[in-house]
Amino acid sequence: MGEQVTGVGIVGTGVISGTYLDHLAKLPGVDVVAVADLDLSRAQAIADQNPGIRAMSSEDLMADPAVDIVLNLTIPAAHAAVHQAALQAGKHTYGEKPLAVDRAEAEPLLKLAAASNLRIGCAPDTVLGTGTQTARAVLDRGDIGVPTAASAYFVTPGHELWHPAPEFYYQPGGGPLLDMGPYYVTSLVTLLGPVRRVTGRAGRSQAERKVHTGPRAGQTFSVDVPTHVTGVLEHESGALTTVLMSFDVWAARLPRIEVYGTEGSLSVPDPNNFDGKVEIATASERDWTEVPVAGGYAGTGRGVGLADMARAIRTGEPHRANGTLAYHVLDVLESLLEAADQDQPVDVASTVERPAAVPLGASPESS
């Protein structure tokens, strides 16, 4: 019997779609068969460059029997609508983060998927790579004792320095917290478990920003979300994580993620990457030491979470980059903004189980 292949249809052919197309072509069990975009010429350009991929309208893609999973790569404001359309068309759906711009949009998606016996998945899947998964193995082995605290930092001067159309990063569903926060909080939940309470502060350095590259360089646009957010996440385990997410920092020497335990410290690589150096320092060995790879999908890229979901659909097992995890992460991030706005701690209503660890040497087709 030949290998089972799941047909994928992509909605949204912006900058990130090229990365997905490159990596999905290397992953087992999935095959991109169709693309759609509001600008049909962009979709057609992809189809012209990739034999076997057809360009069509979003409506036709949803109705195409060759499409089993809709890959939603639209802007954040459209995430919920595209997920809903896919589920209503009887398709499984997987999308870029965040799951939706807020909980009110996201929660009905989970209910619809469950009622329809369909899967919903969501990036980031970077946590399935060897970086975060090796760090998880270190914690699960007890190499630094009991984790009691962590820190997570992402700072940059802003995406308008490199993106030719950066406005959506500064609209609801964007900002440093909802743009980059999902990578960090998904990694933190993978490492330390769900979050039960948050405190936070938020600010905005500028009311307008300027496009720096591309044909619209020099044009200004409004900033509609906080661009500097900081706070504390209280995990159900009792561990406390300090977070800082900012589009207002020109230079810094901050780590990405560190976890602190009763017997040592753990340095976790950039959660926006799939791999990277994992290091520990312990009470007996105070110098940082690199840890051998101990888990995760090796040498992979964006889309491995979709391939993991496709395998899980065929086997009936849970998939790792799942909608419940994405909803909890969104709930944490939105609660952090609410805590800043209300000037008081906010309880996180949702919870989630840590997804299954990815064993060392695993393949999306066999894990």
Report on this structure.
The protein has 367 residues and is an alpha/beta fold. It has helices at residues 15-24, 40-49, 58-63, 76-88, 103-115, 130-141, 175-179, 181-192, 304-315, 323-342, and strands at 6-11, 30-36, 54-55, 69-72, 92-95, 120-122, 147-155, 195-203, 208-210, 220-222, 228-235, 240-246, 257-261, 264-268, 279-282, 289-290, 346-347.
Q: Counting H and I runs of at least 4 residues, what is the number of helices?
A: 10
Task: Provide the β-strand percentage band.
Answer: 15-25%
Q: What kind of sheet is the major sheet?
A: 9 strands, mixed
- Which sequence of SSEs, written as H and E, runs from N to C? EHEHEHEHEHEHEHHEEEEEEEEEHHE
Helix/strand class: alpha/beta
Global outline = globular
Distance between the termini: 19 Å
